[in-house]
Amino acid sequence: MFSVPIVINKMNQGCISILSRENCINREMALIVELLSYKISNEYKVRKKSNNVDLKSFKLTDCQIRILKVLARGCTDKCAAMELGISLGTVRYHKTNIFRKLNVESSVQAITKVLKYGIIPLDEIEF
């Protein structure tokens, strides 16, 4: 058996182990496990940094967030306008500003980004 800890921020978060019943674990197998542990630790750190985005920098208004929630349910612009009691032009105006603020080019990209960064929690989207 060979085991390597997964260390993140100087804390042991778990381990990766291999076990062989018949053959001895050679140095190559041990090295692969060590590299895998290193890769997992680094990937966690990279993802943690990318999730530390300043959410205030997006500055979405309440109306823009309501529009995104409706669009996330699969509604069209026209459907969103009817549901929110605003004109189709207003929905499109807000979408243009949403795309600019989030630096995206489509509703799908905008919805993905606000879900990814937790601007809109997934459980707030009613299907």
Could you explain the architecture of this structure?
This protein has 127 residues and is mainly α. Helix 3 packs across helix 4 (88-102) and helix 4 (88-102) crosses helix 5 (107-116). The protein starts with a strand and ends in an 11-residue tail after the last helix. The chain is built from five helices and two strands. The protein is 54% helix and 12% strand. It is elongated and about 70 Å long. A hairpin with a 2-residue loop joins strand 1 and strand 2. The mean pLDDT is 86. The protein has two domains: 2-50, no CATH class; 55-124, Arc Repressor Mutant, subunit A (Orthogonal Bundle), CATH 1.10.10.10. The protein has helices at residues 27-50, 62-72, 77-84, 88-102, 107-116; strands spanning 2-8, 11-18. Strands 1-2 form a two-stranded antiparallel sheet.
